[in-house]
Amino acid sequence: MANHHSHNHADSELSDSRLLWAFVINQFLTVAQVVAGILSGSTALLSDAAHNFNDANALLIAYIARRFSRKQANERFTFGYRRAELIGAIINLTLLAVIGLYLMYQGVARFFEPVEIIGWLMAAAACLAIVVDTGTALLLWAMSKGSLNVRAAFVHNMVDALGSVAVLIAAGFIIYLGWNWVDPALTLLIAAYVLWQVVKMLPDAIRILMQGTPPGLNLQDVAQRIETVGGIARAHHLHVWELDEQHLALEVHLELEMDQFSDWHEVKSEVKKLLHDDFQISHATLEPEFQDENREKYHAKPLLGDH
Predict the structure, then answer these.
(1) Distance (Å, rounded) from C-alpha 183 to C-alpha 175?
(2) Angstrom distance (rounded) from CA 150 to CA 61
(3) pLDDT of res. 149
(4) Which domains does the chain have, with CATH numbers?
(5) What is the pLDDT of residues 186-241, one digit of tens each?
(6) 50 falls in which pLDDT band (50, 70, 90)?
(7) Sign of dihedral through CA atoms 253, 259, 261, 266?
(8) How far is 29 from 124, CA to CA, in rounded Å?
(9) How distant is the alpha carbon of residue 301 from its chain centre?
(10) What is the mean pLDDT of residues 173-185?
(11) Could you report how far apart the first and last alpha carbons of the chain are, in Å?
(12) Of the candidates 86, 54, 50, 65, which has an alpha carbon nearest to the alpha carbon of residue 19?
């Protein structure tokens, strides 16, 4: 058993080191693309660098999340460290939004004020990016099969590779046909994709941090399902939120029939099983109340109750 535990720990450390190396390599690529983009005059290359910067940070977030996920909850962080990844994601997405808007501005400006672009330097940077993206994919491929977090980073990396291929093709048009307009056109396409990612992901991260109700979950449906359990007269003061992207939590007051109060433990077990099986809610806090004592007090109260 000890050997098996040591083997798993060694595998985890190896996986962590792969993520860290992938992050370092991709940040090196980002710096190289920025330098090449400035020297060559290619805003498309700078746009690809911005996208790669985002994905490199996604790798760092994945690394930190894996490390933090092994830390146990304590008195200061009773729910553990699950939301560290979300905080990093919001910082990363906010920065990416600023970069994406700036690149949009630069792409439009280049249509009106074209500049000379050094095509061979643009092509060389794109080739380097393809090599790095391929190397990163090889590092993450095995890990992506067992981790949704790493799988998402792997998919982002494959999209990066396609972006680098697009930059290489654009460089070919510039070198052989002199079509400098391809560069700002590609800049706008990449910047639009980057901003679309921000619009798609940022609201979800903010909703989780604001303890919003998970999308697709109807509180009335949850309350009605709870009230089907024998002995429960009414469910109210109901709150459901996401601890992170994989774990839901619930708090609810349950008004019990007087003759069922002695069977509270059985009722509680049945409710928790229902919540887990039907709604994938893994953490539930249930507050029992006597029906007769609370009939007047809660008769006119809404589902959510007092705050």
Answers:
(1) 12
(2) 10
(3) 54
(4) 2-209 (1.20.1510), 219-298 (3.30.70.1350)
(5) 888 878 887 887 888 888 888 888 888 898 899 999 999 999 998 888 899 999 99
(6) confident
(7) negative
(8) 12
(9) 36
(10) 85
(11) 49
(12) 65
CA atoms within 13 Å, Cβ hemisphere of 47: 30
DSSP letter string, the chain:
-HHHHHHHHHHHHHHHHHHHHHHHHHHHHHHHHHHHHHHHT-HHHHHHHHHHHHHHHHHHHHHHHHHHHTSPP-SS-TT-STTHHHHHHHHHHHHHHHHHHHHHHHHHHHHHS-----HHHHHHHHHHHHHHHHHHHHHHHHHHTT-HHHHHHHHHHHHHHHHHHHHHHHHHHHHHH--TTHHHHHHHHHHHHHHHHHHHHHHHHHHHHTTPPPTT--HHHHHHHHTTSTTEEEEEEEEEEESSSS-EEEEEEEEE-GGGGGGHHHHHHHHHHHHHHHH-EEEEEEEEEEHHHHHHHHTT--TT---
Residue 63 token pair: 């690394």
Locate 87 and state its tokens. Answer: 């905080």
Tokens standing for residue 250: 């619930």
pLDDT in tens, 254-292: 998 766 566 788 889 999 999 999 999 988 999 988 765
CA 72 to chain centroid? 22
Q: Which amino acid belongs to residue 165? A: V
Q: Judge whether 188 and 100 are in contact, CB under 8 Å.
A: no
- φ, ψ of residue 239 to 5 degrees: the values are -135, 135
Query: pLDDT confidence of 28, banded at 50, 70, 90?
Result: confident
Give the separation between CA 64 and CA 274, rounded to whole angstroms. Answer: 34
Q: For residues 92 and 54, is the Cβ–Cβ distance under 8 A?
A: yes
